[in-house]
Amino acid sequence: MRRVLVTGADGQLGHALASMLYSLPKEFFPVLTDHASMDITDVKKVNDICEQTDPDIIVNCAAYTAVDMAEVEAHQAFAVNEKGAANVAMAAFRMKIPMLHFSTDYVFDGSNNIPYTEEDSAAPLSVYGHSKLAGEFAVMATCPWAVIIRTGWLYSPFRSNFFTTISRIARERGKLEIICDQVGTPTYAKDLASAAVHVFRSMDGLTCDEMYKYKGVYHYSNEGVCSWYDFACAIVDLAGITCVVDPIETKDYPQTAQRPHFSVMNKSKFKNCFHTKISHWQRSLAACMESSGISSQ
Ligand SMILES: NC(=O)C1=CN([C@@H]2O[C@H](COP(=O)(O)OP(=O)(O)OC[C@H]3O[C@@H](n4cnc5c(N)ncnc54)[C@H](OP(=O)(O)O)[C@@H]3O)[C@@H](O)[C@H]2O)C=CC1
Ligand SMILES: Cc1cn([C@H]2C[C@H](O)[C@@H](COP(=O)(O)OP(=O)(O)O[C@H]3O[C@@H](C)C(=O)[C@@H](O)[C@H]3O)O2)c(=O)[nH]c1=O
Predict the structure, then answer these.
(1) 3-state secondary structure of 4
(2) The domain 2-157+186-222+263-279 is classified under which CATH number: 3.30.565.10, 3.40.50.720, 3.60.15.10, 3.40.50.300?
(3) Pocket of ligand 1 (CB under 6 A)
(4) Which sequence spans correspond to the domains of the chain?
């Protein structure tokens, strides 16, 4: 049985991954840590807990994810997303074990008109995007066999995210105005957790030299393309909520941080390397809706 140390286990991805690991009890034993029990900016704490728990795999789900707040809290964003990530990567390097880390579609500036590949240049528009890109470099420099998955528009029935927010405010307000000129692909956290398990299985039992085969950045979201407006319409429809959803432009929804207008990612590298298929975002949204019980409320 493989011990999988998860940081940020109280976040939406950490929670989805923990549930996935508990559902595979013969294969994996989750060692869950959260902000309170293991602050990843505290290098001594990270090393002590890794030493005590002796994991076989480390997955860094901890992050500073408040995109607008990061514009005024750059120091905190970089402390967690760059230095904290490097602390976790250093522990994995010392223990010579697989390290999985997550990054974001917000490393791109949105100027592409075809899906971004891993070879495309990153040019973040926001402090959050810059801090995550710095984290990618820090992780790769610290633990050279690390696998970094860039994902985007993550949602689940757990914690605050676009899915839970829209489900709630559609009922409260009866009318929503949603940006239609930012295009990307939603990612169901359960699908991403399942993708992470594919990575663990591929890297299980490999020597450091063998792990190098997988090193680097991969793109992963659900399949398909939509705007936030399309996503909101689909949530409202599936939930059976009576609510008007109007499309608006980014300029009509003032936000502190700038977001890319286009952040669709090409997932071929992940699918080919880890021999997996990916579900379309509408199918995954339906699965999430069903598991959340929101549509029957
Ligand atoms: N959410 C999204 O739409 C997207 C997320 N990603 C990336 O996916 C990953 C997972 O994101 P997601 O699960 O949504 O994020 P969440 O914000 O839901 O979870 C992040 C977790 O990290 C914890 N955390 C924050 N600071 C620290 C710290 N110093 N030490 C330990 N834990 C800390 C948070 O705890 P607390 O809340 O108590 O501070 C929270 O539980 C991140 O790398 C994120 O950048 C990428 C693209 C899209
Ligand atoms: C609630 C609401 C949001 N929106 C828009 C704002 C924003 O552009 C978009 C999504 O809202 P959010 O607050 O979820 O946006 P945001 O925090 O930018 O989401 C991002 O989070 C980080 C962590 C990532 O890494 C990204 O991939 C992405 O998921 O919807 C509306 O237009 N109307 C509304 O009523």
Answers:
(1) strand
(2) 3.40.50.720
(3) 7-8, 10-14, 34-35, 39-41, 61-65, 80, 84, 102, 104, 132, 151-154, 159, 161
(4) 2-157+186-222+263-279
Interval 52-65 mean pLDDT: 97
Nearest ligand atom owner, CA of 246? 2
Atom of ligand 1 nearest to the CA of 65: 17
Q: Which DSSP category does 296 fall into?
A: G
What is this model's ipTM? 0.99
The span from the CA of 104 to the CA of 128, in Å, is: 9
pTM of the shown model = 0.97
Long-range CB contact pairs, 136-141, < 8 A, 24+: 136/101, 136/103, 136/107, 136/217, 138/82, 138/83, 138/85, 138/86, 138/89, 139/60, 139/85, 139/86, 139/88, 139/89, 139/99, 139/101, 140/215, 140/216, 141/86
Contact in structure between 60 and 7 (CB atoms under 8 Å): yes
CB-count burial class (<10 Å; 0-12, 13-18, 19+) for 176? buried
Residue 200 in tokens: 């663990």
Residue-wise pLDDT for 154-184, tens only, equals 999 998 999 999 999 999 998 999 999 999 9
| Nearest residue (CA) to ligand 1, atom 46 | 104
Active-site annotation, residues: 128
Sole residue written with tokens 């709630």: 168
CA of 162 to the centre of ligand 2 (A): 6
